[in-house]
Amino acid sequence: MSTLAHPEVQTQKDFLPLNGTDYVEFYVGNARQAAYFYRQAFGMTLVAYSGPETGVRNKASYVLQQGKVRFVLTTPLRPDGEIAEHVHRHGDGVHDVALWVDDAKLAWKETTKRGARSVHEPYELRDEHGTVKLSAIATYGDTIHTFVERADYHGAFMPGYRAVEKDPLARTVGLLHIDHMVGNVGWNEMNRWVDFYADIMGFSLYQHFDDKDISTEYSALMSKVMANGNGRVKFPINEPAEGRRKSQIEEYLEFYHGPGVQHIALATDDIVHTVGKLQQQGVEFLKVPHTYYAELESRVGKIDEPLHELEQLGILVDRDDEGYMLQIFTRPVEDRPTLFYEIIQRKGSRSFGKGNFKALFEAIEREQASRGNL
Ligand code: TYF
Ligand code: FE
């Protein structure tokens, strides 16, 4: 593993300045019920809705928010079309990792000029709350990046959506923002997508892991973390590597039917509180054995959190030369072993949890085995 220079000190002009992630849009089989899950279990607040009641005939979308995390859950109302095909092929999953920019037309021009495939040429949506300017390009699999410019927009989300004034179900758990979003790509495709983020999006390599860092007895994968100029957007890219048995990345690719978003890491500043709430509300997490905690203090030294609380919740810890971080992973949130979540708290560390890979991947492999996919 190696950590590279802070992206802040890179000197080259950033041709694609990003303010952060604007939203993540999921295509799902039943957006009303998926919204209930994210509100009840993850504590998100329903803030806007679009569908037949707002004059949209072929789909329904629910906009959920917590801190700066914004999810849009969209379902098709008819059997044909791009959304229905996406759900048919992939099951519920991420379609769009939308990025917040100051100039959606320029973002599209700069990226398509460098070879990005256009999905939407620049366009504008307008209502009584102002204007949102949009454009979109393709990335791995059927996943896209929409560029969102909301210079003078004051509505709940976007034209076409109506605000939901009060969500009686919302129960925040302290999720603050997206720390990173991980893509799984096919065999030997990691470097192609690393080059895409470098050459077309202006990202740089932030960290990389080789198969020695992360192969357990069975599973193996390679991973490189790409980050944009200001470091607000981080995209690790995984590819499967040859192991003794089926890699977790292969299992994902098989069930998602191609590349896609593997996990979304959500940041908190009180992981013990956040994970305690999430567990009470029915979110299921991976468990690591007691031996992990017996060895923890000799591995990471003194930390602020009581070890018995971390063990009870199953929270993992890793340290680098800048500090430490705490993280935990959910089981997949669909019946297919595809998308899952990470809850992460950073205390100075820029680590992605290398010290936890072995314990984590063994936990993932126990789940794979329980599904008969190892
Ligand atoms: O995002 C990361 O790199 C860490 C570690 O299948 C990780 O969360 C990497 C691959 C994976 C699960 C977690
Ligand atoms: Fe992660």
UniProtKB/TrEMBL annotation:
Keyword tags: Dioxygenase, Iron, Metal-binding, Oxidoreductase, Pyruvate, Repeat
Transmembrane segments: none
Enzyme class: oxidoreductase
Cofactor comment text: Binds 1 Fe cation per subunit.
Binding positions for Fe cation per the UniProt entry: 180, 263, 342
One GO BP: L-tyrosine catabolic process
GO molecular function: 4-hydroxyphenylpyruvate dioxygenase activity; metal ion binding
Protein name: 4-hydroxyphenylpyruvate dioxygenase
Species the sequence originates in: Alloacidobacterium dinghuense
